[in-house]
Amino acid sequence: MLALIVIMSRSSSKPCVARVVLKKGKTQLFKDGSPMVYSGAVDRIIGRPPPRSGDIVLVADGAEKPIGWGMYNSVSMFCVRLMQLEEEATRDLSCALNMEKLLETRINEAIELRKSLGLPSASTNAFRLVNSEGDRLSGLIVDVFGDVAVIASSAAWVEKYKPEVEASVGRIDEINYINWRPSSEVLKEEGLDASNYKERDPSICPQRTKVTENGIFYAISLEGQKTGFYADQRENRQFISTISDGQRVLDMFCYSGGFALNAARGGAVNVIGVDSSLPAVELAKENIVLNNMDPGRITFLREDASEFMKGALSRNESWDIVILDPPKLAPRKKEL
């Protein structure tokens, strides 16, 4: 008998787990690892009463045979975020249909994986601990900045299990502060209103912190973009340092200067970073001082990117390396 069916039959706490039955030909995609079940892939939902957003549901093939389980959302285009496949439940019954246990297990696995990669270390204490789908927790990101963990929520289930997420992250020895940052616009599409989210209490979590990544120091504003620092770009920043020796480098949309600082550390003869955000440029300039870099070789400008490039073209300026990492210009179809 299938593991998930066995657990349901034995559990009085989960007697009415609904089944989300997939359309013919849609099953293999999810067996292969895709965690996002779009509403268009669903043929029917079996369950009375019908599941509500945040409920655990089984995901089944056309023959109603479970292929896994996940978190249901009646509003989102992601009808289900798969959390565990049937074969995984067979190997580890303790996590099957148990979101609290699965959360604890997956976060512990993420911690061990980062340790195997040497994180944190003396030269790097800023890194991504949980990378959403990459760590099998779709909608959850956890970035670690020294003794601060910033938790970015972009799924309704993450908000529902906020206490459990914070408890799992809070058990990490190095973490003294937790900053919860819901992605308000994304959560609207999940059927939640995060507009009245209470801002961080400065007495509980600082507004700023300082970290090191590959030996370069950064001042981070925990009120800044995303989680405050693009921890997922660590290896790309380091790569820039390996190709910048003797080069003229332009870092567009530079934010707090990560790529530019690595270019300067890598021996670039001249580096310019451009961003339209004053707080970002101020952070970048602070980072020059933190790293004792020569301000004659690295400069940060607050300017609109298009206007800067028009001016550069009129002056016939050129660079050997240009880093271009703009924000989303049209994140949704309606904005095209």
UniProtKB/TrEMBL annotation:
The keyword Methyltransferase applies. It holds the Pfam family PUA_3. GO terms for biological process: methylation; rRNA processing. It is found in: Cytoplasm. One of its GO terms (cellular component) is cytoplasm. Keywords: Cytoplasm, Methyltransferase, RNA-binding, rRNA processing, S-adenosyl-L-methionine, Transferase. Gene3D superfamilies: PUA domain, RNA methyltransferase domain (HRMD) like, Vaccinia Virus protein VP39. InterPro entries: PUA, PUA-like_sf, PUA_sf, RlmI-like_PUA, SAM-dep_methyl-trfase, SAM-dependent_MTases_sf, U5_MeTrfase_fam. It comes from the Eukaryota. One of its GO terms (molecular function) is RNA methyltransferase activity. S-adenosyl-L-methionine binds at F253, D275, D325. Signal peptide: none annotated. Residues 18-112 form the PUA domain. Its main location: cytoplasm. Belongs to the methyltransferase superfamily. RlmI family. Belongs to the class I-like SAM-binding methyltransferase superfamily. RNA M5U methyltransferase family. This is PUA domain-containing protein. It comes from Prunus persica. The lineage of its organism: Eukaryota, Viridiplantae, Streptophyta, Embryophyta, Tracheophyta.
